[in-house]
Known about the structure:
- The protein is 39% helix and 15% strand.
- The chain is α/β, with parallel strands linked by helices.
- A seven-stranded mixed beta sheet has the order 2-8-7-6-5-3-4, with helices on both faces.
- Helix 8 links the parallel strand 6 and strand 7.
- The longest helix has 15 residues, at 65-79.
- Bound molecules: 4'-deoxy-4'-aminopyridoxal-5'-phosphate and glutamine (GLN).
Amino acid sequence: MQRTSKLPNVGTTIFTVMSALANEHGAINLSQGFPNFPSPERLSDLVCQYMKKGYNQYAPMAGVQSLRERLAEKAEQLYRAKVDPDSEITITAGATQAIFTAITAFIRPGDEVILIEPAYDSYLPSVLVNGGTPAPYRLSAPDYRVDWDELGQMVTPRTRMIIINTPHNPTGTVLKTEDLKALEKLTAGTDILVLSDEVYEHLIYDGREHQSVLRYPGLWERSLATYSFGKTFHNTGWKVGYCLAPAHLMAEFRKVHQFNVFTVNTPVQYALADYLADPETYLSLNDFFQQKRDFFLEVMQGSHLRPLRCEGTYFYLFDYSAISGEPDTEFAKRMTTEWGVAAIPVSVFYSNGSSDKVIRLCFAKTEETLERAGALLRSM
Length: 380
Ligand code: PMP
Ligand code: GLN
């Protein structure tokens, strides 16, 4: 049988590769982004209660009504945006599915999609498998800031979408008001869509405010914004997230969503609706993770890994050039096998694979784990 791959250059995602290597070598896994502490007990209790009460059949295609209503309230309180729970919110199987569905709903063969690299690893294959042409805009260490005039020069008549991500995985940078305004200006009067990946909206530090596209009417009218409860409530394995978009875009999104997953986990959706009633459940996360970030920096003092900066997310980038000149994929493997701490090489987030000698470490871990990891990393 003759068969050509639709994704000939795509291998297994780095998160699977590094977590498997960490397990194989018994290394502390600071590679794939997930917490090693439990999801809130009250939330798990609510899920169990809804399961036992019989909420176990298909939820409505767009998601449970009460959850969508809570999310509309949250968008209004946090970002002063009016989002209609009936026509502008869809609950998804994590942000990954929301991103894939958004791209599939709008990208046709030949459409260009501007990606800001280093970019989360699902964006590029999602564009490619739909026949789109990725147009990578490269950010560099140590600042990883977007020059919007430069990015604007990449726009062509075929540009259909620009993907942004704030707070940004893997760099830990956060877009500011000026960034969003520049993007608003750049796209004004065009039919370019914005896919805004905001899964780390509640992990933002030092008093910064999350700049959601929802705050900017000129952006919101052309945006699909994606979110992840897994990131917010420490349960990445539940795979529940959502997408917000104006009705005219959400209608197209749902045409794909209904034949992609149709609907997602019912008892988890009911539980989340109850849990979100108290905004402290998510508003407290900035302090919680900021403390972890600061603790991690403390245990890394004296290490030859040089910290860059973390304004948001639960990732910290470190420059390893004082230790080794080898490529980051080799270095990350050796960290796992020889020093017992698994990391993500940042080159995997660039389509040309180039590297600034930087690795990413995840600090969503207990203090005990961070302390043990710090001791191993200081010995490098
Ligand atoms: N976007 C970014 C930037 C991420 O880091 C992740 C990883 N969780 C996702 C999307 C996917 O989120 P989910 O696990 O909810 O699919
Ligand atoms: N978002 C997580 C990370 O960046 C992992 C998600 C995944 O494993 N696909 O590490």
